[in-house]
């Protein structure tokens, strides 16, 4: 036979001993496990040893107010779900405590004991819903990361197939055409066609390598991000539309290829924005690691990202960058560069 669920554990805090006993007995009659405290000091001592499912808190205590107790608890330990008991004339204080996170409140009047179980049930339901929401959000983030990881693995697989299989076959065909040209010298027309085939194959090989590099921007080695960003700056600069350089004063090591891949894509998108939209002439990709914090910065001297009102516009590209940053637990911010232009910063605390 499966064990019954443990009943919710409540802490009732009130300086009125008689009322404290009545409230505790009323709640025990509803099936709850109840402990009591007659002061803020006693409540803190109890909370040092236990974690209640809900605290019922009087707003006026002999050694401090309810709001002060709540503030100290929120500052010193993880949040404790709570509802408040308040007397006549303390409605404004009750509203302030609700802003501090109180789930509900009940007035000290003739129907207090009748209303208390309903308030407790309502507060516990809110706590359960909040826990369920957090669990659902955590599962969503886990599944999202897993889907992205699967997608990245597929990209790597396709990129490797392009580079190692198709690329090598095309290279072999180009070599065969080059060798065949020697045999076709007595036949100028055939030699001309073979030369054309060889040129087309060289272009196809270059295109395959470009596609493979796009699918697999960084490898699995810890230094792959640094190498990949250096290559991104070099290729961008070689296109001639934007002078781009890479600045990395000390070696940077990122052990997780999932993290490295998303950081590379963020930099790539930022550079693409500088080229396509910002009309920039210069861009710098900066990578720096200080202890366990990694900072990626891409800045340009373009026109920025204005909208119709002259403020910053968050287009699809920036939205994708923010999404990638959230997947790896990084913080992405957009700013303006002194003298004009855009600065995109991505800060990440690396796991040890």
Task: Fill in the keyword field for this structure.
352 residues; alpha/beta; Rossmann fold; 3 domains; 5-stranded parallel sheet; 18% strand
The proportion of strand residues reads 15-25%
Number of strands: 12
Mean pLDDT: 83
Q: What is the chain-wise order of helices and strands? A: EHEHEEEHEHEHHHEHEEHEE
* Classification by helices and strands: alpha/beta
- At CATH level 2, the architecture of the largest domain is 2-Layer Sandwich
Q: What profile does the largest beta sheet have?
A: 5 strands, parallel
Q: Could you characterize the architecture of this molecule?
A:
- By secondary structure, the protein is an alpha/beta fold.
- The protein folds into 3 domains: 9-109, Response regulator (Rossmann fold); 150-215; 224-349, 2-Layer Sandwich (Heat Shock Protein 90).
- The protein contains 9 helices and 12 strands.
- A 5-stranded parallel beta sheet has the order 2-1-3-6-7, with helices on both faces. The protein has a 5-stranded mixed beta sheet with strand order 8-9-10-12-11, covered by helices on one side. A two-stranded antiparallel ribbon has the order 4-5.
- A hairpin with a 2-residue loop joins strand 9 (282-290) and strand 10 (293-300).
- The model is unreliable at 308-312 (pLDDT under 50).
How is the topology of this model organized?
Elements: E1 9-13, H1 17-29, E2 33-37, H2 40-47, E3 54-58, E4 60-61, E5 64-65, H3 66-76, E6 82-86, H4 91-99, E7 105-107, H5 112-183, H6 188-215, H7 224-239, E8 243-247, H8 257-276, E9 282-290, E10 293-300, H9 316-327, E11 331-336, E12 342-349
Helix pairs in contact: 5-6, 7-8, 8-9
């Amino acid at each position: 036979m499966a064990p019954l669920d443990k009943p919710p554990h409540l802490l009732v805090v009130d300086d009125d001993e008689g009322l404290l006993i009545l409230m505790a007995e009323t709640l025990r009659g509803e099936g709850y496990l109840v402990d009591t405290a007659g002061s803020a000091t006693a409540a803190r001592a109890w909370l040092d040893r236990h974690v209640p499912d809900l605290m019922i808190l009087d707003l006026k205590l002999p050694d401090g107010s309810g709001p002060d107790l709540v503030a100290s608890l929120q500052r010193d330990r993880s949040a404790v779900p709570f509802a408040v008991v308040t007397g006549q004339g303390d409605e404004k204080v009750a509203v302030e405590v609700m802003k501090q996170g109180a789930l509900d409140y009940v007035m000290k009047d003739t129907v207090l004991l009748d209303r208390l179980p309903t308030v407790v049930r309502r507060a516990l339901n809110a706590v359960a819903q909040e826990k369920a929401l957090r669990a659902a959000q955590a599962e969503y983030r886990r599944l999202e990361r897993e889907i992205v990881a699967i997608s990245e693995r597929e990209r790597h697989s396709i990129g490797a197939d392009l580079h190692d299989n198709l690329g090598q076959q095309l290279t072999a065909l180009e070599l065969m055409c080059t060798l065949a040209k020697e045999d076709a010298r007595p036949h100028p027309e055939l030699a001309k066609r073979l030369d054309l085939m060889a040129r087309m194959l060289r272009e196809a090989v270059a295109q395959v390598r470009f596609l493979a590099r796009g699918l697999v921007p960084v490898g699995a080695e810890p230094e792959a991000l640094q190498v990949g960003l250096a290559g991104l700056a070099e290729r961008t600069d070689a296109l001639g539309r934007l002078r781009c350089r890479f600045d990395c004063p000390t070696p940077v090591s990122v052990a997780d290829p999932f993290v490295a891949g998303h950081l590379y894509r963020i930099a790539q998108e930022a550079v693409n924005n500088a080229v396509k939209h910002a009309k920039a002439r210069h861009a710098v990709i900066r990578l720096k690691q200080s202890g366990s914090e990694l900072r990626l910065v891409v800045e340009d001297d373009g026109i920025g990202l204005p909208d119709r009102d002259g403020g910053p516009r968050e287009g699809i590209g920036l939205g994708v960058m923010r999404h990638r940053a959230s997947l790896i637990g990084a913080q992405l911010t957009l700013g303006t560069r002194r003298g004009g232009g855009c600065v995109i910063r991505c800060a990440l605390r690396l796991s040890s």
